[in-house]
Amino acid sequence: MQKKIKPIPLTEFKVRYNLLQAPHESNPDIKDTLRQAAVLIALIQEEGELHVLLTRRPTHLKSHPGQISFPGGKVERGDASLIETALREAAEEIALYPSNVEVIGQYPAMKTFTGFEITPVIGLVKQAFTPKLAPGEVDELFTVPLSYLLQTENRQKQTYQRNGIHHPVYFIRYREHLIWGATAAMINKLCQHLIL
């Protein structure tokens, strides 16, 4: 039985994040031209504990229907940076505005088989906010305690073969939600980073 991980206080989170080097995991070997995108891994304090903000996409969407994801999306012409893309999308999707986010870093872009190269941006929500979900883009907003995600047994990895190459796919179950694919891989990278 593994030892339960205690919640990480905000100040300790910042120290760990800044002092440790993020683990590197190879991307799938994808030769196609990929669309640039960015997501916001937003952490918010609830009852003295850090939680990760996640959204559930509507089931009618053509791309990733019903999946759990971070606020984010494609880079638009007017975006000055990938950080700006992630913050703009969070504002549009859940009314989490850039002025309420302290950006502390980003991870290298992750390639996906669905045609995207996604850059995860890590940010801390400064103050509690009232979410307003964008109709047609977000069906639900929920949080998961970071301490839950840090428990190794809550993050599962399976290997799948595609075009003769083996690739890891991550899965996280939390209550009624199944978090998987790129979102779960980004969470896994954050957790590996923090517990090194």
Automatic annotation (TrEMBL):
Family annotation (NCBIfam families): PRK10707.1 (NF007980)
Keywords, sorted A to Z: Hydrolase, Magnesium, Manganese, Metal-binding
Record-linked InterPro entries: CoAse, NUDIX_hydrolase-like_dom_sf, NUDIX_hydrolase_dom
Protein name: MutT/nudix family protein
An example Gene Ontology molecular-function term: metal ion binding
Natural source organism: Shewanella benthica KT99
Nudix hydrolase domain span: 34-166
PANTHER family in UniProt: MITOCHONDRIAL COENZYME A DIPHOSPHATASE NUDT8 (PTHR12992:SF11), NUDIX HYDROLASE (PTHR12992)
Entry cofactors: Mn(2+); Mg(2+)
